[in-house]
Design a protein that fits this description.
The structure is a single chain. The protein is of the alpha/beta class. The chain has helices at about 5-15, 55-60, 90-100, 120-130, 140-155, 170-175, 195-205, 230-240, 290-305, 310-320, 325-340, 360-370, 385-395, 425-430, 445-455, and strands at about 50, 50-55, 135-140, 160-165, 185-190, 210-215, 245-250, 265-270, 285-290, 345-350, 375-380, 400, 410, 435-440. It has three domains: about 5-75, no CATH class; about 120-320, 3-Layer(aba) Sandwich (Aspartate Aminotransferase, domain 2); about 325-455, Aspartate Aminotransferase, domain 1 (Alpha-Beta Complex). Helix 5 (about 140-155) packs across helix 9, helix 7 packs across helix 8 (about 230-240) and helix 13 (about 385-395) packs across helix 15 (about 445-455). The structure holds pyridoxal-5'-phosphate.
């Protein structure tokens, strides 16, 4: 038995159905394997020591992978294969009996790379740890994760209740694309109270079956927070047995500073392109939650093929090892940089969660978040001319969209990502010409401040 195959068996045993692996010594058909490499007992994952539950930052280094099953390779190899070899015909039949439901227990093992693969499964095992979730799925992009989730739960005639604003492509997907198939939607503003949320849900019920509640917090691009606890309480009060799941886009603060599953959300959704990937060199997405909700999403992903590729999954494994380090450093840097901006005479205001002091947003922040993140809005005194002068003079920060990478990025949403948004909507969202969006990276904070200082001086 080759290392790859042993790895395959390890993966198939580890994930969906715990398999008791028998030692070669205990196997009745030992003689059948004479000449084969003896099957080794895979290492069990260590999740606690002396009653102490190990932290995700520790488990990122090895969870879900046994080097002994891959020639002793410390790191998981990249499994560049489109298909996996069955041990024998009966194993192939057993797999398809599981897939088709002829045998209870579902599919086992690795069969075809549109469904799963070792790199993706290790990644998913590790992703779920950050939010203490039962299960996780990885996708080819944040948008393909969101699209797969929506297609799983929403049918023609259904109503989606969502917080607003949402990432622009998510709004397009719900409003324009699902709208073509008869799906309706109603939204409430991100900071809405429990009463306001309940009123919107109640109206939605009168329009059709509410099949999904979809949130984004903090919202892109306003940074407005959603009260997930209030949304869950409103949902539970209004809907009986047929409760629609609550999914939330946790890209901006997750998984370090916000764990919405603890506050009543059922599914946490990610653009892994951002902080989780963290180096601005890949595009991927993820969804974490209970097995009961993840399984139907997996079936949809199997059908439409929105899984992440093995290479990106491997890169994400590498990224997750430094996730806490990177996010912590970026968060500390952002606090320093925002304090600098706040006191500068050319700055009108800074939209940074760490500056929330009172009011409803501050209350939501205290209950839901453990950190302010590193992505914020800078409003300069003036308009587009001042914003462009600032952006064009930056020497360390790069002029690019996206966020959550090791390097600092800055852009002007009104002239770039949100150029096509109608003026009234831009005004409502606070997307003015003097707005610069900044995502702080892990550089030296004093170097960053020196860069921003000289760029502000050039306005
Ligand atoms: C909040 C949020 N959700 C989803 C996405 C989409 O992710 P991706 O670009 O990985 O498809 C983005 C991208 O910027 C985002 O900011």
């Amino acid at each position: 038995m080759g290392a790859r195959e042993r790895f395959d068996q390890r993966r198939s045993g580890s994930r969906h159905q715990p398999v008791e692996w028998s030692d070669l010594r205990n196997m009745e058909d030992e003689s059948d394997l004479s000449g084969a490499t003896p099957r080794r007992r895979p290492k069990q994952d260590v999740l606690e020591i002396g009653g102490r539950k190990l932290k995700p930052s520790t488990l990122m280094m090895g969870h879900g992978y046994d080097p002994a099953l891959s020639e002793g390779s410390l790191k998981a190899p990249i499994f560049l294969t489109s298909t996996f070899v069955f041990e024998n015909a009966a194993a192939g039949k057993r797999h398809f009996e599981g897939v088709t439901g002829k045998r209870p227990g579902g599919a086992e093992g690795l069969v075809y790379s549109r469904f799963n693969g070792p790199n993706q499964e290790i990644l998913e095992d590790r992703l779920s740890l950050w939010e203490d979730a039962e299960d996780a799925l990885s996708f080819s992009s944040g948008m393909s994760a969101i699209a797969t989730l929506l297609l799983t739960f929403v049918q023609p005639g259904d109503v989606i209740v969502h917080s607003g604003p949402l990432y622009a492509a998510t709004e397009t997907l719900i409003g324009r694309i699902l709208g073509k198939f008869g799906v309706k939607w109603l939204d409430f503003p991100a900071g809405a109270t429990r009463g306001e949320i309940e009123a919107v849900m109640d109206r939605a019920r009168s329009l059709g079956r509410v099949s999904l509640i979809y949130l984004e917090s903090p919202a892109n691009p306003t940074n407005a927070l959603v009260d997930v606890e209030a949304v869950a309480a409103a949902r539970d009060a209004l809907f009986g047995e047929e409760r629609p799941p609550i999914a939330i886009d946790n890209t901006f603060l997750g998984p370090l500073w916000s764990k919405p599953l603890e506050h009543g959300a059922d599914l946490s959704v990610y653009s892994l392109t951002k902080y989780a990937g963290g180096h601005s060199d890949l595009v991927a997405g993820g969804v974490v939650g209970s097995k009961a909700l993840i399984n139907p999403i997996r079936m949809m992903r199997n059908t439409i093929g929105t899984i992440t590729d093995p290479n990106s999954a491997w890169m994400l494994l590498r990224s997750l090892e430094t996730l806490e380090l990177r996010m912590s450093r970026a968060g500390e840097n952002a606090a320093r940089v925002c304090a600098f901006f706040r006191d500068h005479p050319t700055v009108e205001s800074v939209g940074y969660l760490g500056f929330l002091e009172d009011g409803r947003q501050a209350d939501i922040y205290r209950r839901h978040c453990t950190g302010a993140g590193s992505t914020f809005s800078l409003y300069l005194k003036g308009g587009e001319r001042e914003a462009f002068a600032f952006l064009d003079t930056l020497k360390i920060a790069k002029l690019a969209v996206s966020l959550g990478g090791t390097e600092t990025l800055a852009s002007a949403p009104a002239a770039m990502t949100h150029l096509s948004v109608p003026d009234e909507r831009k005004a409502a969202l606070g997307i003015s010409d003097n707005l610069v969006r900044i995502s702080i990276g892990v550089e030296d904070p004093d170097d960053l401040i020196a860069d921003f200082e000289q760029a502000l001086a050039a306005i």
